[in-house]
Design brief:
The complex is a heterotetramer, with two copies of chain A (about 80 residues) and two copies of chain C (about 150 residues). With about 80 residues, chain A is α+β, with helices and mostly antiparallel strands. Helix content of chain A is about 25%, strand content about 30%. Chain A has a five-stranded mixed beta sheet. Chain C is α+β, with helices and mostly antiparallel strands and about 150 residues long. The longest helix of chain C has 18 residues, at about 100-120. Classes of the chains: A alpha+beta (about 80), C alpha+beta (about 150). Strand 2 (about 30-35) of chain C pairs antiparallel with strand 2 (about 30-35) of chain D, so a sheet runs across the interface. Chains A, B: It holds the Pfam family ThiS.
Amino acid sequence: MKRDILYFAWLRERVGLPRETIDTQATTVAELVSELAAREDRYALAFSDPGALRVALDQELSDFTSPLGDAREIAFFPPMTGG
Amino acid sequence: MKRDILYFAWLRERVGLPRETIDTQATTVAELVSELAAREDRYALAFSDPGALRVALDQELSDFTSPLGDAREIAFFPPMTGG
Amino acid sequence: MLDIRVQAAPFDYGTECSNVAKGMPDIGAVVTFCGIVRNNDSGTLQQMEIEHYPGMTERALEKIAMDATGRWDLGACKIIHRFGPLAPGEIIMMVATASAHRADAFAAADFLMDYLKSRAPFWKKERTAHGAEWVAAKDSDETALTRW
Amino acid sequence: MLDIRVQAAPFDYGTECSNVAKGMPDIGAVVTFCGIVRNNDSGTLQQMEIEHYPGMTERALEKIAMDATGRWDLGACKIIHRFGPLAPGEIIMMVATASAHRADAFAAADFLMDYLKSRAPFWKKERTAHGAEWVAAKDSDETALTRW
């Protein structure tokens, strides 16, 4: 299934791009992370500590154990620092 | 000793004046209150429930058990409602 | 750093908010509170008259502000309180605190308001077509002080 | 009643404070918070760059504001948050809450800030002569959420 993957802040800088569309068989966030980390060194580095990351499915904060479901847009980023 | 006695809010309205100078032998706030309450009906009414009143000695909040000391200005008023 | 004013004249809340931390590089957070003459439930309030104790008021506000700056790391602390007759919707008073961090600014503003409510010599009288009545102090305002 | 804006442009904090409760007879209390780009201890900060997640940001802020209006009796709730490059001393964001009573206005503003800090998709990067660094989230910001 085709999904848009978005990266923000230092994750965006490590991966080297803000968004990309990939075709994936992953069914959970954790599976998607494993698939991305296996792609290239820069992805492996970016996702080396998933506990330090957050994920949003279609712009809703979610968990790494969540099923991807129909989510079109999956975003990864460091903990937020608003305000 | 001569002391200025001030009244505020509904206490001022009941006593019928905002301030007066009296010559008193009272040595504590409680004694002064008894003396004032004994003067006239309007004072008796104004001071009928001292628990509902507050006192300041020379512009510092104080207690009814406090000695009057050198205080020149003794103010009585209801609980404050600032803000 | 302390800015304390007791006045009959109106003041511009927006302007006072803007200038709390002007030119202070260490400030990351400003909190302001503004109290407004609220109408009663039946909408019949004509006027709120605020009486105060000139001299003691300034001293009490200064003490409260000093207590706040002693407890929290504040770069600025402002209290403006009006007295005299006010119409519904008019601004009664404001406080503003500025700090490096938000927790200090919030706690200090909250503290200022709690003490201002029951330790500063102001009294409110509400006037409607049916007459005038002094606003009674709330027990909850007195117990709020135990938080600190 | 909700006023939520995410923008690169500056806004006038004073004006935004003034108009929170304009024309609302039930409001007795307004609380505002304003976040400012604070310089670092050595005074070498050149710029703070704020990145955000367009679309999700607006949704997250709306959810946080809705949660606040569900928990407290608010007549108005405003959040303005900027993104892009900001200089030291510039205003980053503000929240404002209006209520009949001060306790609701204070609690809601404090709540909005706690959730905004760690549940709205903003990230800050600080630039000095020595390079740029992403601001790390603080554990204390995450634990602050357990207060609510």
